[in-house]
Amino acid sequence: MTLSEKIEKDYIVAYKAKDKVRLGTLRILKTAAKNRQVELMQSLEPLCDDEYMNILLRQAKQRQESIDLYSEANRSDLADQEQAELEILREYLPQLLDEEQLAAIIEKACAPHIGEGMKAMGKVIQSIMGEYKGQVDGKAVSDAVKSRLQNS
To answer: Least packed by Cβ within 10 Å: which of 28, 38, 89, 90?
Structure first.
């Protein structure tokens, strides 16, 4: 079952169960996917899983940024709503790697570029993010790679 089929199925289940939060979140996700289909001019064929994953990642990142902003503004009601939506989106994302796994990946990716120093930061981050899409947090990768390349 493709990601779009799973989301469509879960959307119908949420509709029947009258789960307003899940229904709203999936509706926004489906709308973003439809908009992307229009951008790519392929409205007759569904998006591939990779393209859908990009949309999911963007939506999750938007929710996380909103949570941070609402928390700073002491709007816990809005932050809680965004958090609930983020949890629903995370159900469709791959499991995040733990710190130990991330450290091993960063060490492996940085090894060939140690002599280049900070100039290689972009290449290293791009290779990690491409290979482990959705499994790593971009900010955590950036901070860890920066720390590793500065200490070499």
So the answer is: 38
Cα 137 from Cα 61, distance rounded (Å): 10
Euclidean distance between the first and final Cα of the chain, in Å? 45
Q: Count the residues in the chain.
A: 152
Pairwise CA distance, residues 139 & 131, whole Å: 16
For CA atoms 65, 71, 74, 76, give the dihedral sign: positive
Q: In whole angstroms, what is the distance from residue 93 CA to residue 84 CA?
A: 15
The interaxial angle of helices 49-72 and 3-17, nearest 10 deg, is 50
Cα 83 to its chain centre, rounded Å, is 14
Q: Domains of the chain, with CATH numbers?
A: 3-90 (1.10.1510.10), 99-150 (1.10.10)
50-86 pLDDT, tens digit each: 889 999 999 999 999 999 999 999 999 999 999 999 9
Q: Which pair of structure tokens corresponds to residue 33?
A: 């996917």
Question: Residue 107 corresponds to which tokens in the numbers above?
Answer: 């060490």
* Separation in Å, CA 83 to CA 42, 69, 89: 32, 12, 10
